[in-house]
Amino acid sequence: MTLRVLAAMSGGVDSAVAAARAAEMGYDVTGVHMALSSNPQSYRTGARGCCTLEDSRDARRAADVIGIPFYVWDLAERFHQDVVEDFVSEYAAGRTPNPCLRCNEKIKFEALLDRARALGFDAVCTGHYARWDGATLRRGVDHGKDQSYVLAVCTPEQLAHAIFPLGDTTKADIRAEAERRGIQVAAKPDSHDICFIADGDTQAFLAERLGRAPGPIVDLDGNRVGEHEGAYGFTIGQRKGLRLGRPAPDGKPRYVLDISPVDNTVTVGPREALDVDEIVARRPVWLGEPPAGPIGCQVQLRAHGEVYDCVAEPAAAGLRIRLASPAKGVAAGQAAVLYEGDRVLGSATISEAVRVTAGAE
Questions:
Q1: Model pLDDT, residue 194
Q2: At 90, which helix (H) or strand (E)?
Q3: Which of 101, 129, 170, 257 could form a disulfide with 145 if both were Cys (CB 3.0 to 4.6 A apart)?
């Protein structure tokens, strides 16, 4: 029996080629574009977008070239609730969210997949650069475009109904293939930044929703060195835009070390105080049997970030990760994704970072 596959088509080159490949593989493919905003004009357009009217039209044209049915599904309310509101509440709590990761978790592999399954589709096809063989999730062969990090929050049950046709190909080859196929978005630039912040000003976006909330910026000794308009406007490791009224005694730049929403205080200090050698993470998701004890592996702490050797161990809080070498700028709210070589073991959400430098907490 031919598998029925729903191809999520963003309007970009990756999802278009993924849909074309799925059709060539003999699947019964239907394309769908997710309308994620009730007011598309408020979202990023052109090279920076992925869910605007312009992108919807690009997706429809690609589906016509491929020769598959195409629909637009309105998921704006779900996206606003699960991604946009989550983004705002996470910043308000002093954490740094990854909205693209949350979109994968809550929209593409929950809301979209649930609706697809209810309509009789067997799987969802996307343009992610990752490899899934039905049991194991691995990095895409193009490590510069690898998206296994943002997929690691998905459960094995969700991934069991996923197809990633691009995992064995480089981005350059995908663009060349799109051009050969006559897909007009072959040269369309990649989407980047946050799609629902039209002008890219995250701090202004948050201020509009959370309001002005002045508070102190202090150094590690508790000395007030500046003022802020809202602690939510900062992230761990940030150096620019601090507007400090008092320079550091050594004249070196200072970085955000801690964000406390309870007393609305931002703590800054030297770069070396960002060093972290242990991480506590919650809500672990394993893509196999959970380990019974400590395991040696690698961990990635940001999308396209550095990879660290570590020992990960189940703990009462979820997961404790001890790094072999210090990491900098580890932010609560980001995902810690565990790897064994290029194979994803699982993921968890960072809740606490233990810093090497005494007193930095």
A1: 83
A2: helix 85-92
A3: 129
For the chain, 361 residues long, the average pLDDT of each consecutive 10-residue run is 94 96 98 83 52 86 98 94 95 91 92 96 97 96 95 95 97 97 91 79 90 94 93 92 83 93 94 95 94 96 94 92 95 96 97 71 41
In a domain, 244, yes or no: yes
| pLDDT value of position 205 | 92
Q: Is 8 annotated as a binding residue?
A: yes
According to the annotation, is 285 in a ligand binding site?
A: no
User: Domain containing 228 — which CATH number?
Assistant: 2.30.30.280
Alpha-carbon gap, residue 253 to 269, rounded angstroms:
8
User: What's the domain count of the chain?
Assistant: 3
Per-residue model confidence (pLDDT) at position 190: 83
Closest by Cα among 316, 339, 344, 301 to 96: 301
Task: Give me the pLDDT at residue 39, please.
Answer: 64
Does 11 lie in the same domain as 88? yes
Segment (H or E) for 267: strand 265-269
pLDDT of residue 196: 87
Q: List the catalytic residues.
A: 103, 195
In a shared domain, residues 17 and 89: yes
Q: H or E segment at 339? A: strand 335-340
| Cα dihedral 33→36→38→40 (10° resolution) | -80
- As a residue count, the chain comes to 361
Note whether 266 and 331 are same-domain residues.
no
Are 310 and 321 in a shared domain?
Answer: yes
CA pair distance 58, 54, nearest whole angstrom: 6
Task: Name every residue whose Cβ is closer than 8 Å to that of residue 342 and which is 6 or more positions away in sequence.
Answer: 138, 139, 148
12 among annotated binding-site residues: yes
- Tell me which residue has tokens 């799987």: 123
Measured distance CA(74)–CA(96) in Å, rounded: 27
pTM: 0.91
| Domain contains 361 | no
Which helix (H) or strand (E) segment is 257 a member of? strand 255-260
Q: DSSP readout, 286-321?
A: ESSSPPSS-EEEEEE-STT--EEEEEEEEETTEEEE
- 11 appears as a binding residue in the annotation: yes
CA neighbor of 152 nearest in space, from 300, 279, 321: 300
